[in-house]
Amino acid sequence: MSFDTIPFQKIVRFGQRTMLDNQIFSVSWILGRFCNYKCSYCWPYANSQTPDHQEFEVYKKTIDEIRFQAACNGFTQFHWSFSGGEPTAYKNLNDLVKHIQSDAVPSYQSIHMTTNLSPGSKWWKTWCDNTSLLQRRSITASYHEEFAKEKDFIEKCLQLMHDRVFVTVNQVMVPERFWETYERCKRMASYGINVTLKPQSNDTATAIVEGYTPRMIDIMKNDFEQQEGYQIRLTDGQQDYYIDQAERFNAFGFNNFKGWMCNSGYQSVIIRGNEVKRSYSCHDKILGTLSDGFKLFESPTVCVTPSCMSSADSKIPKKKL
Asked: Percent of the chain having pLDDT more than 70?
């Protein structure tokens, strides 16, 4: 399928297929901005060299409260997604995912993590053990050539895949290094590893940087179609269309949903530091904090934000009014 055939200007409803078809509540959680890498192209606000994680009991209490409030809205299945900074830098991460796995009530739970894969193979074996009972596990492995070694990175991807973790390499395509990066991605794909190409955003993550040629944009739109199939379903009211993953939205410029009805804050929540928000990009008032409490929306609410720059925001079910 060519994604260029989708009539984005006519789309009236879309979202992550699992969230459209099931009572799944999605949690996207930045555990902290601390990162053991310091990439030259990283957003200034997106990393810190100072550990900024909260106490383990605060995180456990937050998980339990989300489960309770989501169930009050009718959502009884859960997807947990962790990022940073670098989430594996949190010393109690394996205890946290073990706590998620310990709840036998939900009929379905999945876990996702965006990571630079810097821990060793023994650490990843423990993570796999602590998530083995969940219905689905996935990793977005961000490759950073300034710090990572290609051979070691590929070996860890293959180790996780052997343990039945769905792995996708997320590669920021810096314009000045586009073609050498593209060749590396092709080498990774030759091992059967999923690869997704991500446009570089500006310092405020509000727009794609300049420097891409039409050919580069076309590659980011269409190359490396995901092996697992189409995650996103869109409809123009008469016909359904599909995209493999929401990261492609920015490459198509399909990320402006102000005035649309959105399930963010109702079927999903974002946690960043101490803040509980409707979405990463959201201009709404925050829903609350981990320390003082928070309240989810009791129904979908109209979007007031000019654009979604994060795929975690873009994939949440939305309906044009």
From this structure: 99
In order, the DSSP letters of 67-84 are HHHHHHTT--EEEEEEES
Q: Kindly tell me the number of DSSP H helices and DSSP E strands found in the chain.
A: 9, 16
d(Cα 69, Cα 169) in Å, to the nearest integer? 33
The residue among 158, 170, 163 whose CA lies nearest residue 81 is: 170
Whether residue 166 contacts residue 137, with contact meaning beta carbons closer than 8 Å, is answered with yes
User: What are 159-202's pLDDT values in tens digits?
Assistant: 999 999 999 998 889 999 999 999 999 999 999 999 989 888 88
Query: Which CA distances in Å does 98 have to 69, 118, 162, 243, 312?
Result: 21, 20, 20, 32, 23
- Helices 56-72 and 93-102: angle between axes, nearest 10 degrees: 30
pLDDT band, residue 1 (cuts 50/70/90): low
pLDDT digits (tens, 9 = 90+) for 273-283: 899 999 988 88
Sequence-ordered list of residues with C-beta below 8 angstroms from that of 170, at least 6 positions apart, any chain: 114, 140, 141, 142, 143, 196, 198, 247
Sheet order of strands, 261-262 included? 240-243, 232-235, 13-16, 318-319, 261-262, 301-302
Tell me the backbone φ, ψ of residue 170, rounded to 5 degrees: -105, 115
Q: Residue 299 corresponds to which tokens in the numbers above?
A: 């129904």
What single string gives the DSSP state of each residue in 81-140? EEESS-GGGSTTHHHHHHHHHH----S-EEEEEEE---S-HHHHHHHHHHTTTSSEEEEE
User: What is the torsional sign of CA 7, 212, 309, 267?
Assistant: positive
